[in-house]
Amino acid sequence: MSIINTGFGSRRRSSRPELPPGQYLTHDFPVLSAGPTPRIPLDRWSLTITDEIGNRTSWNWKEFNALPQEDFTVDIHCVTKWSKLGTTWRGVSLDTLFDNVELTSDFTMIQGYGGYTTNVPLQDLLDGRAWVAHTFDGEPLHPEHGGPARLVVPHLYFWKSAKWVNGIQMLAQDEPGFWEEAGYHLYGDPWREQRYQGD
Amino acid sequence: MAEGRWETPTARTLVLDIPDWPGHLPGQHLDVRLTAPDGYQAQRSYSIASAWVAGGRVELTVQRIEDGEVSSYLDDILQSGQQIEVRGPIGGWFVWRNTPEPVLLVAGGSGVVPLMAMIRARADVRGRQPFRLIYSVRTPGDVLFADELKRQVRDDPGLDVHFVYTRAAPDGWPVPPGRIGVATLNTYGWPPDFAPDVFVCGPTPFVEAAANILVALGHDPKTIRTERFGG
Fold first, then answer.
1. Percent of chain B whose pLDDT exceeds 70
2. Which of B83, B93, B212 sits opposite A36 (nearest CB)?
3. A119 touches A159 (CB < 8 A)
4. Contact between B58 and B31 (Cβ < 8 Å)
5. Contacting residues of B for A22, CB less than 8 Å apart
């Protein structure tokens, strides 16, 4: 049953085929975070992939920046309904990060400075679909938006693109992260409008 | 919508009768989806302003945004007796759960809405937790829930409200209009030693500024919950 709202729609925004259902276009870059913005000094920054039995692969800031870098342009979709099209980033593909890591598990928990977590299936991080980005729109990524570096997984709602990322824990089974625990969808595909549990 | 009530010339409270509403916690929001006669749809999230009373109504207070296609419909076109599609409650983080800690609420503009739900919930359960609200608004005329806040502060020694006026202050106000700063949060907030639960809600620059100051004053970042809106 759909309710028709007579008188609504006269001030509508232009709809575009690049927009998933229920999303609207924004030209700003809104900020969504559960708490204060952490400040991470670059000389104390690190990124670590940990497999199920505790083997760790780590990079400090210098090592991370020495990895092959990619420029990429993607559309991003926030579960709070805004989308931003054609955003430009620079960073390291997860394919590069996982190059020497044995792929033994199907799931991951992404961890960020400040305690944030979000779960992403491993296959969604691979095959050119995810990056750890340090540059947005030609500038170092601002702390509000997740700098020094954040995950970017543009084919999922943007809460999956963890800000201030510092760890990827491989898991045998899928587990909810921070927002997933609070009622948001375990997977979060914007094209299937998987906003909340049960969608 | 059972009734509508103007809080200021640009913000209206929608009192909703929602059959089978499961109840909500103060701080949660709901999604509104509007459908035009030709099938065009738009969705937005709105914070719930009311505390939940079993079998009761749900109130949203909607600040009209310039060029806001949904907020302008909700404030200016929707009439009592008409229906809108809602979904919720949503969110399990930015909520007050009637815990014993003192509480500091920091509101920027219409960011006061979910914080008002917390103040109302505390009043409903006759909570003894000391609450402080620091509420930043442009002018005295922009204050939402002004009479209710005044009444609650008068009747309840456990609730303090301090206003910060950014554009125009009332006659005789001791300080010129200005943004929230270290001195405000230090003077009218709780000391970090009290380990209060802190809720900050407002436009992004406001929340960034307030949360950064609170961390600098020594509050544990894990005790500071934030909700940002706008670009």
1. 99
2. B212
3. no
4. no
5. 33, 41, 43
Cβ contact (<8 Å) for A37 and B231?
Answer: no
8 Å CB contact between B201 and B108? yes
Question: Is pLDDT above 80 for B103?
Answer: yes
Q: Report the pLDDT averaged over residues A54-59.
A: 96
A3 and B86 Cβ atoms separated by less than 8 Å? no
- Chain B residue numbers touching A4 (CB-CB < 8 A): 35-37
Identify all chain A residues contacting B45, using CB atoms and an 8 Å cutoff: 80-81
Give the number of other CB atoms < 10 A from CB of residue B124: 14
CB proximity list for B172: less than 8 A, separation 6 or greater = none
Rounded Cα distance between A150 and A144, Å, is 11
pLDDT of A69 strictly over 90 = yes
Q: Indicate if the pLDDT at residue A14 is higher than 80.
A: no
Are the Cβ atoms of A9 and B37 closer than 8 angstroms?
Answer: yes
Which residue in B has a C-alpha nearest to residue A193's C-alpha? B43
Q: Please tell me whether the peptide bond between A140 and the residue prior to it is cis, using omega within 30 degrees of 0.
A: no
How many CA atoms does the CB half-sphere of A136 hold within 13 Å? 21
Amino acid at B67: D
Nearest C-alpha in A relative to B77 = A7
Q: What pLDDT sits at residue B230?
A: 64
Q: What is the DSSP string of B106-143?
A: EEEGGGHHHHHHHHHHHHHTT--S-EEEEEEESSGGG-
Helix (H) or strand (E) holding B228: strand B224-229
| Contact criterion met (CB below 8 Å) for A158 and A125 | no
SS (H, E, C) B135-178: EEECCHHHCCCHHHHHHHHHHCCCEEEEEEECCCCCCCCCCCCC
Per-residue model confidence (pLDDT) at position B175: 93
